[in-house]
């Protein structure tokens, strides 16, 4: 059962309008002045108003669903974006330039630097709170902002590589803006310094349930783990420096061993509870999450169950799972699936890793009271009488994160949780670092623990490169659609493997009720070497003459 949460006052996860936050948090202040009458001295001497300001940084920095996961997946061998919501087609078709980075794009250079500026404004003014606010309150807010600035810079780093490191608050009196890009390592070290400050200032947990979702020590340590894993990976660690892998291992283990919170794996596909990882708010596996209120519509964020579901259920099929992702799931005995195996080809959705059924909705599966009909002419097909323009082009949709109890025909929005960091990722970070260091036994222990507890899958027996391949396979399955695959294949130096044409399947129902399957190409894709990084928008290059563009963009 989901915990009962007052979504009107919970933030750090909850994307409510600033006005609503003001009403719920600062009603006494609102009784004194209209919203547009706050002076700078009002804000920086009132901890309630400052907390609203910090809440706004969360809203801009912590991305979710299409911005945090699905849009990235649609640029890889995970997904096809049915409506190009994040401008992913310009990337997968090799057309991305410095001039076509739209507001809906995942580029986000401007938004992320706006977040950095807000963090810098806070840090330059926070001292003014010390004499008027509870010391612990101010301390916690400082920790939150250091975490959020670290997160904003990490989001920039993973998109662009090294970027300008801004700590000054620029204003209208500044005539020149000539900030050079830092190196990848310099940017990484800047982020680590912010994380270190955050861990000194943040609590391990919050006593008040209404504060769940705010940054914690665990969230800061999880961000450090992800960052150091990237730094140790082959594309960035070209010399194969084992010290970097050791740091990545230690960072992951620090989260696993953290005593300040009771993190534990949660949900098992083998017993039908896998999606509770995402649907049960702030469960033990969640290290950091963003929750969207069910009180007011936040399109694409608290409408996710409608957005992902098939057209025959009045859903949008917004992101279609590609055949390559479907085929990546093992058989239930741990062996690979293959279309060349006659038994597999006859019943391609039978006897698969239990996570398959919790993650992907395929043909002839029970969903919301009936079996799905992705076959030609079926209710969930492009020939359906029910919103055929919303049909899946691949004949698969995402089931992971979908709350099947929501009746989006009556109300298309409901409270939802985007999990930003969870313990399964940290296990995967740890086992990858262990394997890179040749500690195969430790890597196997955590790999098999994850497989058993999340899916009831058989143990792996492997070593060396075969073990690393198994870990990468496990990461692909366990973390799919959560925004990792795009960056994983880049940090491994194999980004082009995720850029092959997006495939689907044509399903024909026979007279005897059986089905036949024929491969189809849903989208032709083009790989260009530039796509290891995003382009810096042309407008930013024009504003700052010291900026240099990423390789292979003109």
From TrEMBL:
Localization (cell): Cell outer membrane
Domain SusD-like N-terminal, chain residue ranges per copy: 30-229
Keywords assigned: Cell outer membrane, Membrane, Signal
Main location: membrane
PROSITE patterns xref list: PROKAR_LIPOPROTEIN
RagB/SusD domain location: 284-553
CDD domains: SusD
Family: Belongs to the SusD family.
Name of the protein described by the UniProt record: Membrane protein
């Amino acid at each position: 059962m989901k915990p009962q949460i007052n979504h009107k006052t919970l933030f750090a996860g909850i994307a409510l309008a600033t006005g609503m936050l003001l009403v719920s948090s600062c009603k006494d202040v609102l009784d004194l002045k209209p919203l547009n009458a706050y002076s700078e001295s009002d804000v920086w001497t009132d901890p309630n108003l400052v907390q609203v300001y910090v809440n706004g940084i969360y809203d801009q920095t912590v991305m979710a669903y299409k911005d945090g996961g699905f849009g990235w997946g649609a640029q890889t061998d995970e997904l096809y974006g049915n409506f190009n919501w994040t401008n992913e087609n310009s990337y997968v078709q090799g057309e991305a330039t410095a001039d076509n980075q739209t507001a809906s794009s995942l580029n986000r250079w401007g938004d992320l630097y706006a977040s950095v500026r807000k963090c810098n404004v806070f840090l330059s003014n926070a001292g003014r709170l010390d004499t008027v606010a509870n010391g612990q309150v101010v301390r916690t807010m400082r920790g939150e902002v250091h975490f959020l600035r670290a997160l904003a810079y990490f989001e920039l780093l993973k998109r662009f590589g090294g970027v300008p490191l801004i700590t000054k608050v620029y204003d209208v009196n500044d005539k020149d803006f000539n900030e050079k890009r830092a190196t990848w390592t310099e940017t990484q070290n800047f982020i680590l310094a912010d994380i270190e400050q955050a861990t000194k200032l943040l609590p391990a947990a919050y006593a008040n349930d209404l504060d769940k979702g705010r940054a914690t020590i665990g969230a800061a340590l999880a961000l450090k783990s992800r960052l150091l894993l990237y730094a140790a990976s082959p594309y960035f660690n070209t010399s194969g420096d084992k010290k970097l892998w050791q740091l990545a291992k230690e960072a992951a283990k620090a989260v696993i061993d953290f005593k300040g919170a009771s993190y534990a794996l949660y949900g098992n596909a083998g017993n039908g509870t896998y999606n509770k990882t995402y649907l049960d708010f702030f469960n033990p596996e969640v290290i950091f999450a963003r929750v969207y209120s069910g009180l007011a519509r936040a399109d694409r964020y608290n409408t996710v169950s409608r957005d992902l579901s098939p057209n025959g259920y009045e859903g949008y099929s917004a992101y279609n799972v590609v055949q390559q992702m479907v085929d990546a799931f093992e058989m239930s005995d741990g062996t690979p699936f293959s279309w060349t195996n006659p038994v597999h080809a006859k019943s391609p959705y039978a006897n698969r890793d239990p996570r398959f059924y919790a993650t992907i909705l395929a043909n002839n599966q029970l969903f919301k009271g009936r079996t799905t009909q992705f076959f030609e002419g079926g209710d969930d097909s492009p020939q359906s009488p029910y919103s055929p323009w919303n049909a899946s082009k691949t004949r698969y949709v995402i089931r992971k994160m979908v709350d099947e109890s929501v009746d989006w025909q009556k109300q298309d929005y409901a409270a939802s949780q985007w999990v930003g960091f969870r313990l399964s990722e940290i296990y995967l970070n740890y086992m990858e670092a262990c394997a890179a260091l040749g500690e195969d036994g430790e890597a196997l222990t955590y790999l098999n623990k994850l497989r058993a507890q999340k899916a009831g899958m058989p143990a792996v027996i492997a070593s060396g490169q075969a073990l690393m391949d198994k870990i990468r396979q496990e990461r692909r399955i366990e973390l799919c659609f959560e925004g990792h695959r795009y960056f994983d294949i880049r940090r491994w130096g194999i980004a082009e493997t995720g850029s092959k044409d997006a495939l689907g399947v044509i399903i024909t129902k026979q007279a005897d009720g059986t089905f036949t399957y024929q491969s189809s190409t849903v989208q032709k894709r083009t790989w260009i070497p530039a796509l290891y990084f995003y382009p810096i928008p042309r407008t930013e290059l024009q504003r700052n003459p010291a900026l240099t563009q990423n390789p292979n963009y003109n």
